[in-house]
Amino acid sequence: MSDIIRIAIQKSGRLSEDSLRLLKECGIRFDNGAGKLKTTATNFPAEILFLRDDDIPGYVEDGVAHLGIVGQNVSEETDRDVDTIYNLGFSKCRLSIGIPRATGYQGIQDLQDKKIATSYPRILSKYLKSNGVNAEIHEISGSVEIAPGIGLADAICDIVSSGSTLLSNGLKEVEVVMRSEAVMIAYKQMTEGQRAILNQLIFRIDSVQAAKNNKYILLNCPTESVDAITKLIPGAKSPSVMPLAIEGWCSLHSVISESDFWENIEKIKQAGAQGILVIPIERMVL
Ligand SMILES: Nc1ncnc2c1ncn2[C@@H]1O[C@H](COP(=O)(O)OP(=O)(O)OP(=O)(O)O)[C@@H](O)[C@H]1O
Ligand SMILES: O=P(O)(O)OC[C@H]1O[C@H](OP(=O)(O)OP(=O)(O)O)[C@H](O)[C@@H]1O
Ligand SMILES: [Mg+2]
Questions:
Q1: Residue 4 phi, psi dihedral angles, 5° rounding
Q2: 209 alpha carbon – ligand 2 mean position (Å)
Q3: Per-residue pLDDT of the chain in tens (286 residues, 90 and over written 9)
């Protein structure tokens, strides 16, 4: 049988939509109709498994799935023997300790001998230990933020993103235990054929990510401004410069990084650019 890789993604939850989108942006086509737990890609040697996220690292450790997309928090908590091969940049959040808003807090020693509710007992216990704090960890699987309000615990350790769940449950964030984002994890003993498929997939993810991190920029500028603008947006090699119908003016095309877009765009304007257009890039192969 020719090689195929099995990719495990979350069936439904915070990671599902972005995981599906990533695979589709990589040009992998498959039918993911409601209720389907396994599907075969029609144009790439892959099967997609739809699972609970907590189960994904175990499946990848055993080689039942060869790749999986999970949060770093889940990967670390489950502590399976897998390779983390790609930081995917979505589902960014932090795992934090929260306490009731009215409770005073001087520092982590205030958690000594307290009871902390969490779905992440392993990560929390490591964190407390490394800070020399001894506390009772009470494991619950969800709705963790409710615990202090119903007298179940003094504090919680759970995922925080906007902070609105903490806020609406009368809690405040006092310690960041870890920062997390979605990662791709891999089975350690893939065949050579599977590794070749993985390399193809990584090449595609690279080009999708590069495209997301950059924008195509077109502008008009006086010819004498070309050098100054080229220094700000050199592009992969150098910008394309074309003469305009008006003497002394040209059109300059390049690539600008998303991360310093606003800072750079100001400088580009100051250097003499006019009529600036910024366009999303679909794919970028460097
Ligand atoms: N509010 C958030 N903002 C950003 N990322 C988040 C947020 N909440 C969770 N995540 C990330 O998404 C992952 C999945 O979260 P989700 O709430 O869907 O998990 P779950 O309820 O355990 O799902 P499952 O039913 O698959 O076990 C988390 O492990 C974390 O990495
Ligand atoms: O800081 P915030 O933006 O409020 O996000 C944090 C919340 O998001 C997650 O829960 P989710 O909404 O996914 O529900 P769940 O408990 O069913 O996983 C997490 O468990 C927190 O409760
Ligand atoms: Mg889960």
A1: -145, 150
A2: 26
A3: 579 999 999 999 999 999 999 999 999 999 987 888 999 999 999 999 999 999 999 999 999 999 999 999 999 999 999 999 999 999 999 999 999 999 999 999 999 999 999 999 999 999 999 999 999 999 999 999 999 999 999 999 999 999 999 999 999 999 999 999 999 999 999 999 999 999 999 999 999 999 999 999 999 999 999 999 999 999 989 999 999 999 999 999 999 998 888 889 999 999 999 999 999 999 999 8
> What gap in Å lies between CA 12 and CA 52, rounded to an integer?
8
Distance (Å) from CA 166 to ligand 2 centroid: 9
Ligand nearest to the CA of 142: 2
CATH number, domain 93-179, options 3.40.190.10, 2.40.10.10, 3.40.50.300, 3.30.70.260: 3.40.190.10
CB-CB contact of 214 with 278 (8 Å)? no
Pairing of strands 136-139, 115-118: parallel
List helix spans (H) across the chain: 16-25, 56-62, 72-78, 121-130, 164-168, 192-212, 226-232, 261-270
d(CA 188, CA 211): 29
CATH fold for domain 5-90+182-211: D-Maltodextrin-Binding Protein; domain 2 (3.40.190)
Quick check: CB of 158 below 6 Å from ligand 2? yes
Domain 214-280, what fold? Alpha-Beta Plaits (3.30.70)
